[in-house]
């Protein structure tokens, strides 16, 4: 299958772009230990966006993998995960802030280090959201691709340091026209003392038409209802 477009998001980098429905969005870690934070919006109505609580409770899970969908706050499917080498992507760890980054890795500034300064997820997202006419009020929970975070028996959140391997990939299929916003910054719960950011390759390809036995469609009854809501949405705006 031919790649329509590709790029590499370097350590600390960011990217945002509109992607039409029916595309494959493939992410590949170039080294072990990657973390790529993702926000997802309806490109035609930016008030509709990924809803973490609804996504998790509808699919009886606290993490995402193949077969799961990223549902919007309007009960529709923004994207489905159609391929996954890792089996677990973090939905609860969040993203780094400036204060967190300075406290953990040492204070750095652009004025001192130019492009080598240590960026935070919050700042990266703020910049990319501004490009689409949004701001800090539009910040929301993220999916941290390539990271595993779980809650232990005492309820403490734990990051698994060796979860993501070099060359691991995960592929999303866009079910709506979406605005994807990406930040290649550390998972806030990553215990490593150095700034752990790994370049991630991003590729966009054409998706094949959905079949009736599709994994995402049939994962749960709630998934099918969300897909039906999505199909109705597009049928009515044609």
UniProtKB/TrEMBL annotation:
It comes from the Bacteria. Transmembrane segments: none annotated. Residues 8-179 form the DUF1989 domain. NCBIfam families: urea_degr_2 (TIGR03425). This is DUF1989 domain-containing protein. The lineage of its organism: Bacteria, Bacillati, Bacillota, Bacilli, Bacillales.
